[in-house]
Amino acid sequence: MAEENRACVHAGHRRRMREEFLKSGLEGMPDHRVMELLLFLTIPRGDVNPLAHRIIDHFGSLVGVFHATYEQLLEVPGLGPSTAAMLQLIPAVSARYMQEAASFDNHVVSRWQVKELLAPLFFGQRDELAYLMCLDGGNRLLATRKLGEGVVDTVNIAPRKILEAALSCNASQVILAHNHLSGVAGWSQADVHTTLRVKELLNAVGIRLLDHVILAGDDMVSMADSGLLRDR
Hints:
alpha+beta
Protein backbone atom coordinates (compact mmCIF):
# COMPACT_ATOMS: atom_id res chain seq x y z
CA MET A 1 0.00 0.00 0.00
CA ALA A 2 2.83 2.40 0.88
CA GLU A 3 4.44 1.74 -2.49
CA GLU A 4 1.17 2.51 -4.28
CA ASN A 5 0.86 5.78 -2.36
CA ARG A 6 4.38 6.78 -3.36
CA ALA A 7 3.55 6.01 -7.02
CA CYS A 8 0.46 8.25 -6.79
CA VAL A 9 2.50 11.06 -5.24
CA HIS A 10 5.13 10.86 -8.01
CA ALA A 11 2.46 10.75 -10.73
CA GLY A 12 0.83 13.87 -9.28
CA HIS A 13 4.20 15.60 -9.04
CA ARG A 14 4.97 14.89 -12.70
CA ARG A 15 1.58 16.16 -13.78
CA ARG A 16 1.99 19.36 -11.79
CA MET A 17 5.45 20.00 -13.22
CA ARG A 18 4.24 19.48 -16.79
CA GLU A 19 1.31 21.80 -16.19
CA GLU A 20 3.63 24.42 -14.70
CA PHE A 21 5.87 24.25 -17.77
CA LEU A 22 2.95 24.43 -20.22
CA LYS A 23 1.56 27.45 -18.39
CA SER A 24 4.73 29.45 -17.69
CA GLY A 25 7.55 27.88 -19.69
CA LEU A 26 11.00 27.57 -18.12
CA GLU A 27 11.10 31.14 -16.79
CA GLY A 28 12.38 31.08 -13.20
CA MET A 29 12.69 27.27 -13.12
CA PRO A 30 16.03 26.13 -11.63
CA ASP A 31 18.27 23.83 -13.64
CA HIS A 32 17.58 20.72 -11.57
CA ARG A 33 13.82 21.06 -12.15
CA VAL A 34 14.35 21.48 -15.91
CA MET A 35 16.48 18.34 -15.79
CA GLU A 36 13.72 16.58 -13.89
CA LEU A 37 11.27 17.39 -16.70
CA LEU A 38 13.70 15.94 -19.22
CA LEU A 39 14.18 12.78 -17.18
CA PHE A 40 10.43 12.16 -17.31
CA LEU A 41 10.91 11.43 -21.03
CA THR A 42 13.17 8.42 -20.51
CA ILE A 43 12.31 7.31 -16.98
CA PRO A 44 8.55 6.74 -17.00
CA ARG A 45 8.07 6.00 -13.28
CA GLY A 46 9.50 6.86 -9.91
CA ASP A 47 11.15 9.85 -8.26
CA VAL A 48 13.83 11.29 -10.57
CA ASN A 49 14.50 14.38 -8.44
CA PRO A 50 17.63 12.92 -6.78
CA LEU A 51 19.07 11.95 -10.18
CA ALA A 52 18.30 15.41 -11.57
CA HIS A 53 20.26 16.97 -8.68
CA ARG A 54 23.18 14.54 -9.20
CA ILE A 55 23.41 15.37 -12.90
CA ILE A 56 23.37 19.14 -12.36
CA ASP A 57 25.78 18.92 -9.42
CA HIS A 58 28.14 16.77 -11.50
CA PHE A 59 28.29 19.14 -14.49
CA GLY A 60 27.50 22.43 -12.76
CA SER A 61 24.65 23.59 -15.01
CA LEU A 62 22.42 22.63 -17.92
CA VAL A 63 25.04 24.08 -20.25
CA GLY A 64 27.60 21.76 -18.71
CA VAL A 65 25.28 18.80 -19.18
CA PHE A 66 24.71 19.58 -22.85
CA HIS A 67 28.44 20.05 -23.45
CA ALA A 68 29.25 16.68 -21.91
CA THR A 69 30.09 13.67 -24.05
CA TYR A 70 28.02 10.52 -24.03
CA GLU A 71 30.73 8.73 -22.05
CA GLN A 72 30.90 11.55 -19.47
CA LEU A 73 27.14 11.43 -18.97
CA LEU A 74 27.28 7.71 -18.23
CA GLU A 75 29.68 8.42 -15.35
CA VAL A 76 26.80 9.85 -13.30
CA PRO A 77 25.37 7.10 -11.05
CA GLY A 78 21.87 6.14 -12.15
CA LEU A 79 22.12 7.79 -15.60
CA GLY A 80 21.58 5.07 -18.20
CA PRO A 81 22.23 4.85 -21.96
CA SER A 82 18.73 5.99 -23.02
CA THR A 83 18.89 9.11 -20.87
CA ALA A 84 22.44 9.86 -22.01
CA ALA A 85 21.37 9.58 -25.66
CA MET A 86 18.38 11.88 -25.02
CA LEU A 87 20.62 14.50 -23.40
CA GLN A 88 22.94 14.33 -26.42
CA LEU A 89 20.00 14.68 -28.78
CA ILE A 90 18.67 17.92 -27.27
CA PRO A 91 21.61 20.21 -28.20
CA ALA A 92 21.90 18.51 -31.60
CA VAL A 93 18.23 19.19 -32.38
CA SER A 94 18.55 22.75 -31.03
CA ALA A 95 21.51 23.39 -33.32
CA ARG A 96 19.56 22.07 -36.30
CA TYR A 97 16.62 24.31 -35.42
CA MET A 98 18.81 27.43 -35.13
CA GLN A 99 20.56 26.70 -38.43
CA GLU A 100 17.30 26.28 -40.30
CA ALA A 101 15.55 29.20 -38.60
CA ALA A 102 18.48 31.49 -39.47
CA SER A 103 18.70 30.29 -43.07
CA PHE A 104 17.73 32.86 -45.69
CA ASP A 105 16.37 29.98 -47.74
CA ASN A 106 13.52 29.69 -45.27
CA HIS A 107 12.54 33.34 -45.59
CA VAL A 108 9.83 33.87 -48.20
CA VAL A 109 10.26 37.52 -49.09
CA SER A 110 9.42 37.73 -52.78
CA ARG A 111 7.12 36.27 -55.43
CA TRP A 112 10.01 34.57 -57.23
CA GLN A 113 10.89 32.66 -54.06
CA VAL A 114 7.28 31.50 -53.81
CA LYS A 115 7.50 30.23 -57.37
CA GLU A 116 10.84 28.51 -56.76
CA LEU A 117 9.44 26.72 -53.73
CA LEU A 118 6.18 25.66 -55.38
CA ALA A 119 7.36 24.75 -58.88
CA PRO A 120 8.80 21.33 -57.86
CA LEU A 121 5.48 20.38 -56.25
CA PHE A 122 3.56 20.91 -59.49
CA PHE A 123 6.21 19.75 -61.96
CA GLY A 124 5.01 16.89 -64.16
CA GLN A 125 1.65 16.61 -62.41
CA ARG A 126 -1.28 15.25 -64.40
CA ASP A 127 -3.84 16.45 -61.87
CA GLU A 128 -4.65 19.86 -60.53
CA LEU A 129 -3.40 20.23 -56.96
CA ALA A 130 -3.80 22.72 -54.15
CA TYR A 131 -1.21 23.56 -51.48
CA LEU A 132 -0.94 25.86 -48.49
CA MET A 133 2.37 27.49 -47.59
CA CYS A 134 2.45 28.25 -43.83
CA LEU A 135 4.74 31.02 -42.57
CA ASP A 136 5.52 32.61 -39.23
CA GLY A 137 5.41 36.35 -38.55
CA GLY A 138 8.97 36.78 -39.83
CA ASN A 139 8.17 35.27 -43.26
CA ARG A 140 9.95 32.02 -42.41
CA LEU A 141 8.44 28.98 -44.07
CA LEU A 142 7.11 26.54 -41.47
CA ALA A 143 5.56 23.92 -43.74
CA THR A 144 3.88 23.36 -47.09
CA ARG A 145 0.71 21.29 -46.76
CA LYS A 146 -1.06 19.53 -49.60
CA LEU A 147 -4.77 20.33 -49.42
CA GLY A 148 -6.06 18.01 -52.11
CA GLU A 149 -6.45 17.22 -55.80
CA GLY A 150 -7.97 19.80 -58.13
CA VAL A 151 -8.34 23.58 -58.15
CA VAL A 152 -9.60 25.23 -55.01
CA ASP A 153 -13.17 25.83 -56.19
CA THR A 154 -13.70 22.39 -57.81
CA VAL A 155 -11.75 20.02 -55.54
CA ASN A 156 -14.25 20.54 -52.75
CA ILE A 157 -11.58 21.77 -50.35
CA ALA A 158 -13.56 23.31 -47.54
CA PRO A 159 -12.22 26.59 -46.16
CA ARG A 160 -12.27 24.74 -42.82
CA LYS A 161 -9.57 22.37 -44.12
CA ILE A 162 -7.38 25.35 -45.02
CA LEU A 163 -7.93 26.82 -41.57
CA GLU A 164 -7.04 23.52 -39.88
CA ALA A 165 -3.82 23.23 -41.92
CA ALA A 166 -2.79 26.78 -40.97
CA LEU A 167 -3.56 26.26 -37.27
CA SER A 168 -1.71 22.93 -37.18
CA CYS A 169 1.48 24.77 -38.18
CA ASN A 170 0.90 27.71 -35.82
CA ALA A 171 1.11 29.89 -38.92
CA SER A 172 0.78 33.65 -38.73
CA GLN A 173 0.56 34.00 -42.52
CA VAL A 174 -0.30 31.68 -45.40
CA ILE A 175 -0.10 31.53 -49.17
CA LEU A 176 -2.63 29.45 -51.09
CA ALA A 177 -1.53 27.88 -54.37
CA HIS A 178 -2.92 25.69 -57.11
CA ASN A 179 -2.00 24.79 -60.67
CA HIS A 180 -3.77 24.86 -64.05
CA LEU A 181 -3.11 22.07 -66.51
CA SER A 182 -4.40 24.18 -69.39
CA GLY A 183 -1.13 26.11 -69.52
CA VAL A 184 -2.96 29.37 -68.81
CA ALA A 185 -2.25 30.95 -65.44
CA GLY A 186 -5.42 32.82 -64.53
CA TRP A 187 -8.30 32.64 -62.10
CA SER A 188 -12.01 32.19 -62.43
CA GLN A 189 -14.66 34.12 -60.52
CA ALA A 190 -15.13 31.00 -58.44
CA ASP A 191 -11.42 31.09 -57.54
CA VAL A 192 -11.75 34.71 -56.42
CA HIS A 193 -14.96 34.08 -54.48
CA THR A 194 -13.48 31.10 -52.61
CA THR A 195 -10.27 32.98 -51.88
CA LEU A 196 -12.11 35.91 -50.32
CA ARG A 197 -14.11 33.51 -48.14
CA VAL A 198 -10.87 31.87 -47.01
CA LYS A 199 -9.30 35.25 -46.30
CA GLU A 200 -12.24 36.25 -44.10
CA LEU A 201 -12.14 32.95 -42.20
CA LEU A 202 -8.40 33.24 -41.56
CA ASN A 203 -8.66 36.88 -40.51
CA ALA A 204 -11.14 35.87 -37.82
CA VAL A 205 -8.42 33.84 -36.07
CA GLY A 206 -5.56 36.27 -36.67
CA ILE A 207 -3.98 34.56 -39.69
CA ARG A 208 -3.18 36.66 -42.74
CA LEU A 209 -3.73 35.36 -46.27
CA LEU A 210 -0.74 36.85 -48.08
CA ASP A 211 -1.60 35.59 -51.53
CA HIS A 212 -3.29 33.04 -53.73
CA VAL A 213 -1.04 32.11 -56.63
CA ILE A 214 -1.83 30.03 -59.68
CA LEU A 215 0.88 28.22 -61.61
CA ALA A 216 0.72 26.95 -65.19
CA GLY A 217 3.92 25.67 -66.71
CA ASP A 218 6.57 28.34 -66.17
CA ASP A 219 4.01 31.06 -65.54
CA MET A 220 2.58 32.21 -62.23
CA VAL A 221 -0.02 34.85 -61.40
CA SER A 222 -0.69 36.43 -58.02
CA MET A 223 -4.00 37.66 -56.68
CA ALA A 224 -2.16 39.92 -54.25
CA ASP A 225 -0.22 41.58 -57.07
CA SER A 226 -3.48 42.08 -58.95
CA GLY A 227 -5.07 43.85 -56.00
CA LEU A 228 -7.80 41.25 -55.46
CA LEU A 229 -6.91 40.68 -51.82
CA ARG A 230 -6.92 44.32 -50.73
CA ASP A 231 -9.26 45.13 -47.88
CA ARG A 232 -12.36 46.84 -49.14
